[in-house]
Amino acid sequence: MPFSPDPYAALRNAARYVRQFRRKTFVLLVDGPMLGDARLRRAVCEQIALLWTFSIQPVVVHGAGPELNTPFDAMSAKVRMDLLADLQTAGVPCVGLSGVDAGLLKARRRNGEPGSESSWESNKPNNYSLVGDIESVDTRLLQHLRTGDYVPVVAPLAGDPSGTVYNASADTVAATLAVALGAEKLFFLLPTPGLLRKPEDPASLVPQATLTDLAALEQEGQMSDSTVSKVHAIRSALVGGVTSVHLVSGMLPNAILEEVFTNEGSGTMVLREAPARGNG
Known about the structure:
Blueprint: H1 9-21, E1 25-30, H2 33-36, H3 38-53, E2 57-62, H4 74-89, E3 94-98, E4 105-109, H5 120-123, E5 132-137, H6 140-147, E6 151-155, E7 157-159, E8 165-167, H7 170-180, E9 185-190, E10 208-210, H8 211-220, H9 225-239, E11 244-249, H10 255-261, E12 268-271
Parallel strand pairs: 1-2, 1-9, 2-6, 3-6, 9-11, 10-12
Antiparallel strand pairs: 4-5, 7-8, 11-12
Helix pairs in contact: 3-4, 7-9
Pathway: Amino-acid biosynthesis; L-arginine biosynthesis; N(2)-acetyl-L-ornithine from L-glutamate: step 2/4
Pfam families: AA_kinase
GO molecular function: acetylglutamate kinase activity; ATP binding
């Protein structure tokens, strides 16, 4: 009979990561094709469900999806409901909300946006075409939900004291919440394997990087606008105290789990600075 490897070896290896991350917060941004493709969305939800089962505390931020212009048009509402439904099917007790709920995210109009205080039409409440920058965060609602073991699913909208609602960058919202919640990890799910040195070459994956490395890559000028946005959010998260940021594929069914529970990982891990070498 051929030698059979220990069928529990992988479980034993994963157990140490489970112990390490139990009760820690992971913020995950789900966007783009991962929202619009039912198969990809379900795979992401199943991975989030496993994190939750292991007593990791996920907080999910979602974008508007690949075909949408504003977060709360009819199609976006369906995408959001589909995400919540898939999480529920995977066994996750989740609650959908936006940054407007309970004053979670407060914003101000981005400089240069059209309209003025005298233009009532462009400033009236429920005009979701406005873009805002996050000014403050109140995590009490999220903490209350997490105390009940619910998983918050947050849409990137924010309000101001006048009742105006703003679109906010999903990258920025994810990073801002990760900092405010003292998250252990922030995940960006991508249509690529991770951060690529050459945008069109999957073989140019950068498995680990620091903020210095990101600055050098940005200086090379090969990053897409969407990647630059994420780099700025990564920098904000790490400087704000998040332990690590991970860019992983949302196109592969187990990329998140491989990144969390294996030594090799599956995408790009970004740290504030290179880990100190041991003395031995």
